[in-house]
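Dear colleagues,

I hope this message finds you well. In preparation for our joint manuscript, I am sending the Acyl-CoA dehydrogenase (Williamsia limnetica) sequence together with its predicted structure, so that both groups work from identical material. I would be grateful if you could confirm receipt.
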Amino acid sequence: MTAINLADRGVDLAQWDGTTADFADSVRTWLDQHLSGEFENLKSRGGPGSEHEFFARRLEWDRLLARAGWTCLGWPTEYGGRGATIEQRILFHQEYARSGAPARVSHVGEELLGPTLIAFGTDEQKRRFLPGIRDVDELWAQGYSEPGAGSDLANISTTARLDGDTWVINGQKVWTSLAHVAQWAFVLCRTEPGSSRHKGLSFLLVPLDQPGVTVRPIQQLTGTSEFNEVFFDDATTEASLVVGEPGEGWKVAMGLLQFERGVSTLGQQVGFSRELDHVVEMAKANGTASEPVIRERIARASLELRVMRAHAQRTLAIVDTGGSGGEASVAKLLWANWHRDLGELAMAVQGAPSLIAPEATSEGAANDIFDPEHLELDFWQRLFLFTRADTIYGGSNEVQRNIIAERVLGLPREAR
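The corresponding structure tokens are as follows:
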């Protein structure tokens, strides 16, 4: 694949030769300059439970990042990335979170599929798909979970059979984030009849805008519909659009999950810290900060956030050695339970008023998907409701504990 000339994208290559402080300053300066004007009201938009907010404007924001060379930082330069070090990528995510910049709409393509194609894809697949991901011209969804295979990913039943030069796909995926706005999905299918568990799976790249694909949004407790059901009824994709060898999709799928829990988690924790700071401010303002139980819960949340950060830094430090295999599961348990507990803490700080949803107003009309029939929840109510799912999606608490027990500690497998 032809290397991108970063200078043509307005990128000052000199900033990459300075200290980490110089790099952080360049990120901070760019965000301060551009997160203003037409993008000013996007600050802190699009977070958990609010993915519907200002979607079209956030898409334009992502494309502005791409034009300035701030997407795909960790990709090698020959694939259009910036070849950033881990330290630089961490700094970017931290500064991005601190600035209050909006949630990205291209995360699945940039942070998950892109690195997976670089690691496992063919040259043709890289040429065809990486530019669209880098420039945010194509959005991707993740077709893993199914009604009978949520956290138990190896139990999937969606099938794909090879018919000449075409894969024909039948089955259903569920909890598919942003499938209603994506053009493509990577879909884990069973391609070997009679196979079971991890064997006989293939990792396919599938266009969503075609006959045979039906996307149905699932309304959540928050009243929004980030998640979707996706039905495949003789849907098709090209035979060449299998990543890795047919039947070895499990290897590719697990490789992708390692990318999912990479350096962006440290940026996520900066966002968590901002949320905790706001809870503390709210507690001081309404007097609940003087209540012993609330003070203890705030102190615990602060300490646990430090533990979470220390674990993330330790995990990144041993990434090249492979680690014990349980770091990602520990990280998921730490942040998912912490964030759920923060939602509960915010409700406790607010007290009885947190139980009342304000009536819908026309203020949300600027949103691209505003429905005046729904009640408009405030930030903390939406966060509380959404974080109920944090301990379930991406591998439930039970599954993460089983991974640690069986694969790391060597304990007997759970009876099935």
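For the figure legend, we might mention the following. The domain at 6-105 is CATH 1.10.540 (Butyryl-Coa Dehydrogenase, subunit A; domain 1). Confidence is low (pLDDT under 50) at residues 1-18, 360-375.

With kind regards,
E.M.
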